[in-house]
Design goal:
The complex is a heterodimer of chains A (584) and B (366). With 584 residues, chain A is of the alpha+beta class. Chain A contains 19 helices and 21 strands. Chain A is elongated. Chain B has 16 helices and three strands. The longest helix of chain B has 25 residues. Chain B is globular and about 55 Å long. The chains are: A alpha+beta (584), B mainly alpha (366).
Chain lengths: 584, 366
């Protein structure tokens, strides 16, 4: 018996020896492989989203901010009681029961039930799930972009897509500052997918996005948009836009367009509403462009403001065509050419300057190139070089035809005159401040170039002041208590298919205040106002809007009135005598 | 067993059915352990001859209880098997008792028959007739693992008792052919049985537990992740506190402890066999051998399963796994071993060896 027991003992020992070898092989030999397997199975990288920076106006008012919300997601493989859970979810999240049930039965491990659920609602639901021992629905921490002012300034602020990237406006152009850097955390989970807090691994905290401070002043923005909205309703135009710039610095104080959209619900607006007309629309500027010809002629020393120009009594034969003024004039001084907005006078000034030189002045005023404002979607406009001009071009371009510019370019060119001849880069962002308060960037005013002498700028300014005076085309632009300078513009609407659309006009007024030391430049442009053709002039449509805006802005900015100017009567309105080139 | 308690503290807290009490399993196991040790001490005081007289009691008890497993109010059906008996306050597996019954019976039989037990009639047929009802009942519970275990113990005892090798070889080959035939018949079962050979391929189905066990062993490495740091018990390994406690030892404490455990079982085996072979008579020798074989085989199967050397069959790791009846029975067996040791022939010859030999036995108990 003994040897048999011994034999069994040997066999058993042998078996255990084999086990030992096996254990050594697994625990030491394949240790690395299994460590990886265990890690791959248990851990995953959880993203800790960074808080997106706020957008503030010049006074620190919050224009866009993140509000924490929860994204409710389901792992349908972990759901324990479908009907009960679907019922609860549909009640709390206000979703149709069938839709929720379908998702819970989908077999997918990650289904979004609802985005942007308020924190209280999510916490409440989570608690109830715990109490009733329901599983399979999770609440991810996310945030929602909120624009407290709704549609106000929507074009400038832009909005974000579902990947939380800005797709328009400041949200897009400043995305890399606003976005910040997401953090992450390696978490281990048990087989039910619950996080095992004790085993938290590597962690990298998120770097929150920086705040972007704009040059926009929301009070001014509100004034501008209120008037734009009113005009948009009354005149029912295709579009209307306005921009207010501080000429000394190039800071944009307000910028608005209609039609528009609400950044909180960008999807609800038509695509036309998403267009920021001030920077994305090109138009023929019309007579507001005449300041270029005058500036060039004076700056080249060819004329003085009091130099006389013969205006052909309203019919000027050139290049086989007749160029007309609406009101025929004989002799006008250079000063009067602008005040009366004579097409013939302007073209004669440009002819004396010469094609090449005139083209250079156009470019020096910033036309034909992007202004460089920190907003996406800006276009440069179209300015053809002289070798592509026709014979008629030298007579048409000075009055703002055969050229395509953006409203912002007109405003900046006007601001250059108001600023003593120095063209500034338009600023929309003032500062970028990191979440810890550190100033990352400050945008100081940038002078692009000197366009004309300060003396010449003063002469043009004086002429523009008279445009708003009793002899000018824009009496309705006057603001009580201030001397206002400006220029009207009326141009036939360019048909996208080529040529002009009869009966449709783009009318504008670009002015500044006060003339002595301009605090702001304001451009108002109305595209295809539904009004009588005989009344559809910049001086009649755009100038009154300017007047209302400028008056309120002047009051808000607390600008000291220079002199008392009588308020215009309705009778004066009738005398508006804008000069238009209505081409055959 | 200390290791068992410690590991249970660690794993039990995360087990599925702890009924909200992290120390639920621990408390129960401690109670069972105290009971087991008391049984061990009591039994070690009883002369081995006593078991010779009461074999029929064990045998009868085992039979009755195994039948009772199928009677609903007392028998309990868990996971489709009728393995448990519910006595109100405690639940236990009669098959544990059946192991003891079979061993006691066989030891008595071959002691009684003596040399006649070598023949076919007395060596194979007669004990076979007694064995078949018990094996059959356990098999009907759907507990193939225990059936095979009991059969293997019986086979081992017959071998040691001196039954002719020819007959045993015959049984072996019969069993082997039978298994082959069954595997052929049920292709699907064959694939399940073979799943253990390729844990990677079956990692999500039949081989899930064993695959997770391998990951536990593997990530533990030489020194382990540290007590309480194991991840696999977090529901990846469904029976981390019972049958699959050994991988948790591997993950948390490392190779040092797993090899230590294996070594301990080898020690139990060798000292046990040594005691058995020096038993005062044929009966105590066979009895001791049977008990040790029972403990060691369970350990061997368990370790084999968890390391993917054997197909997955539920088998506790003696002294370590959670499970009351198994623990008490194991302690009972150790108690009998001590009793045999006290009367061992060697003691009268070499009293000074007593101290030396006492050591491993004491170590096992701790």
């Amino acid at each position: 018996m003994r040897w048999r027991i011994f034999l069994v003992g040997v066999v058993v020992s042998l078996v255990f020896t084999i086990y030992s070898a096996r254990l050594i092989a697994i625990q030491v030999g394949e240790h690395g492989k299994f460590v990886e397997l265990a890690a791959a199975k248990n851990t995953y990288r959880q993203v800790i989203p960074a808080r997106r920076g706020r957008i503030l106006d010049a006074k620190g008012e919050v224009l866009a901010m993140d509000r924490p919300t929860r994204r409710v997601v389901a792992d349908s493989t972990r759901v324990n009681r479908v009907e009960e859970l679907a019922k609860l979810a549909s009640e709390r999240l206000e979703l149709p029961v069938r839709e929720v049930e379908e998702k819970l039965r989908s077999g997918r491990r990650y289904v979004v039930l609802r985005h942007g659920v308020a924190e209280e609602v999510a916490m409440d639901m989570q608690r109830e799930m715990m109490e009733r021992n329901l599983r399979g629905i999770y609440f991810e921490v996310t945030s929602e972009r909120v624009y407290p002012n709704g549609a106000l300034l929507g074009h400038v602020l832009g909005f974000m897509n579902h990947e939380r990237r800005g797709v328009q406006g400041i949200e897009m152009s400043m995305d890399r500052y606003l976005a910040g850097q997401d953090g992450f955390r390696d978490v281990e989970r048990d087989r039910d997918g619950r996080e095992v807090v004790v085993y938290r691994g590597l962690e990298a905290l998120p770097r929150d996005g920086a705040d972007v401070e704009l040059t926009i002043d929301m009070a001014i923005q509100a004034i501008l948009e209120e008037e734009l909205e009113k005009a948009y309703r009354e005149l029912n135009p295709w579009s209307i836009c306005g921009v207010i710039v501080r000429p000394k610095t190039g800071e944009i104080l307000a910028m608005g367009s209609r039609p528009n959209f609400d950044s909180n619900r960008p999807g609800e607006a038509e695509s036309e509403g998403h267009k920021n007309r001030v920077i994305s629309e090109v138009v023929e500027p019309g007579s507001t462009f005449k300041i270029v010809a005058m500036s060039a002629a004076l700056n080249e020393g060819l004329f003085r403001p009091e130099s006389v120009i013969f205006c052909e009594n309203g019919r000027y034969f050139y290049g086989g065509r007749v160029l007309r003024d609406v009101h025929p004039y004989g002799n006008l001084t250079v000063h009067e050419v602008l005040v009366k907005s004579s097409n013939i006078g302007s073209s004669k000034l440009a002819q004396r300057v010469g094609e090449q030189k005139f083209y250079e002045y156009i470019r020096r005023f910033g036309f034909g190139e992007k202004s460089g404002v920190d907003l996406p979607g800006e276009v440069g406009g179209i300015v053809h070089p002289p070798h592509r001009w026709t014979k008629l071009s030298i007579t048409r371009i000075p009055m703002g035809h055969e050229i395509a510019v953006t409203p912002l370019q007109i405003a900046m060119a006007t601001a250059a005159i108001a600023n003593g001849g120095r063209l500034m880069t338009p600023l929309i962002v003032k500062r970028i401040v990191a979440s810890d308060g550190e100033e990352l960037m400050t945008f100081r005013p940038v002078e692009v170039r000197r366009v004309v002498d300060e003396r010449v700028a003063g002469m043009v300014k004086a002429a523009m002041a008279d445009v708003v005076g009793p002899q000018g085309t824009a009496k309705l632009a006057a603001v009580a208590g201030f001397r206002v300078g400006g220029k009207t513009g009326t141009a036939q609407r360019v048909d996208p298919r080529g040529g002009y659309t009869p009966g449709k006009y783009v009318v504008s007024f670009c002015g500044f205040l006060p003339v002595g030391d301009p605090e702001f430049v304001c451009l108002i442009m109305v595209d295809d106002a539904k009004t009588l053709t005989t009344r559809n002039y910049g001086g009649l449509v755009a100038a009154p809007i300017f007047s209302r805006v400028a008056e309120k802005v002047a009051r808000y900015l607390d600008i000291v009135p220079e002199e008392m100017v009588g308020v215009l009567t309705m009778a004066d309105e009738q005398e508006g005598n804008e000069v238009v080139n209505k081409q055959p | 067993m200390a290791l068992g308690i410690v590991m249970l503290t660690s794993t039990g807290a995360f087990a599925e059915d702890n009924r909200g009490d992290v120390y639920y399993f621990l408390k129960r196991q401690v109670i069972w352990a105290i009971l087991g040790v008391s049984v061990c001490i009591t039994v070690s005081r009883i002369e081995t001859d006593y078991w010779k007289r009461v074999w029929w009691f064990f045998y009868g008890m085992a039979l009755v209880l195994l039948v009772l497993c199928f009677v609903p109010p007392i028998g309990m059906r868990i996971n489709g098997s009728w393995r448990w008996i519910n006595l109100g306050i405690l639940v236990f597996q009669p098959s544990e008792l059946a192991k003891v019954a079979v061993i006691v019976f066989l030891a008595w039989w071959f002691d009684k028959e003596g040399r006649a037990g070598k023949g076919f009639l007395k060596g194979i047929l007669m004990p076979g007739i007694f064995l078949v009802p018990i094996l059959g009942l356990i098999a009907m519970e759907v507990d193939i693992g225990t059936t095979v275990l009991v059969a293997a113990i019986a086979f081992g005892m017959m071998f040691v008792a001196g039954v002719s090798l020819w007959y045993l070889a015959g049984i072996m080959s019969l069993v082997f052919v039978g298994m082959l035939f069954m595997a052929m018949q049920i292709g699907e079962r064959a694939s399940r049985l073979l799943a253990f050979l390729k844990p990677d391929e079956y990692r999500l189905s039949e081989g899930l537990q064993q695959w997770q066990a391998l990951i536990a062993f593997g990530s533990g490495g030489l020194m382990g992740l540290g007590l309480g740091e194991g991840r696999q018990k977090l529901k990846y390994l469904p029976y981390a506190h019972t049958d699959f406690i050994f991988p948790m030892v591997g993950e948390e404490l490392g190779l040092v402890f797993t090899l230590g455990v294996v070594l301990l079982y080898v020690l139990i085996c060798l000292t046990g066999f040594w005691i058995a072979s020096h038993g005062k008579d044929r009966f105590s020798g066979l009895l001791g051998f049977g008990f040790v074989l029972c403990i060691v085989l369970q350990a061997a199967v368990n370790i084999g399963v968890t390391t993917s050397v054997l197909p997955n069959k539920g088998m506790p790791l003696p002294f370590v796994s959670y499970g009351g009846s198994n623990l008490v029975i194991c302690w009972f067996m150790i108690g009998v071993m001590i009793s045999i040791y006290r009367r061992a022939r060697v003691l009268e010859v070499e009293p000074e060896k007593r101290l030396l030999e006492n050591r491993p036995v004491l170590r096992l108990r701790v």
